[in-house]
Amino acid sequence: MSTLATYKNLFDLSGKRALVIGAGSGIGRAAALGLAAHGAEVICADLKQDSASASANAISEQGGMASSAVVDLNREQTVSELFDKLNSLDVLVCTPSINVRKPLLEVTAEEFDRVVGLNLRGSFFAMRAAGQQMQKQRSGSIILFSSIRSQVVEPGQGVYAATKAGTLQMVKALAAELGPVGVRVNAIAPGVVETPLTEPIKSQPDWYQAYADKSALGRWSQPSELAGAVVYLASEAASFVTGSLLVVDGGWTAIDGRFSPPL
Ligand SMILES: NC(=O)c1ccc[n+]([C@@H]2O[C@H](COP(=O)([O-])OP(=O)(O)OC[C@H]3O[C@@H](n4cnc5c(N)ncnc54)[C@H](O)[C@@H]3O)[C@@H](O)[C@H]2O)c1
Predict the structure, then answer these.
(1) 11-247 homologous superfamily
(2) Which residue among 21, 166, 177, 250 is least crowded, i.e. fewest CB within 10 A of its CB?
(3) pTM tops 0.85, yes or no
(4) What is the pLDDT of residue 257?
């Protein structure tokens, strides 16, 4: 029979090594801090060296274990080089994505390639490299960032939404392929989170408020509110969770938000 100590340690990541790609900003930074707070050694990787170092320093200054690395998910070679340096890897978190908000009929080939290139192709490079390492180890947890846009859309989100649905399907496929060797693969779907990615929306009060009103909780989330989902999927608490989409959206996708009847 399991003891209370077993349950108490469900979220303990002591002795685990985590790589967070996108750790320099927003949800990635919160994920890195959350994993470190639960005992993981965290490699904070980002396109921007300064941002990656700032996240690693923030962890180290508070007594956690962290280092930084530079990687460009648009360049396969840099992803290979980053993973070649790792002897072992228990957790991968991959966040980088971009959005070009405009009507589908106006999207250029260059814009399409840019969004798909980072969001889908870049995520693929990261999950493939982590999967190859973890397959050898026969353990590990891969956590990709999808979005509520993998489920529901609005005008101007066509290509971004396609990449987020595509990421989810890759997650499911890799979960199927690596399940037999004990590697788990999951996706997280945030709602609206106040980060640099959504800064253009925040600067338009009507748009910002409409998004706040859409969720059941009536507000945006902070990046720190995604850390719990990351720690959970990384940890033993999620030992039987794979191929899943963990929705952290304040109830956005549960309700249609058109009208609140006078009850
Ligand atoms: N913010 C939201 O409201 C929201 C909502 C739903 C889903 N998401 C998803 O969550 C994830 C994280 O979003 P965020 O808001 O934290 O984004 P963000 O823009 O704040 O952070 C992205 C990080 O990725 C890094 N990056 C960019 N290009 C890179 C590259 N080529 N190689 C390596 N790193 C690169 C950036 O330097 C930055 O540090 C994304 O996948 C996004 O689609 C965000």
Answers:
(1) NAD(P)-binding Rossmann-like Domain (3.40.50.720)
(2) 177
(3) yes
(4) 76
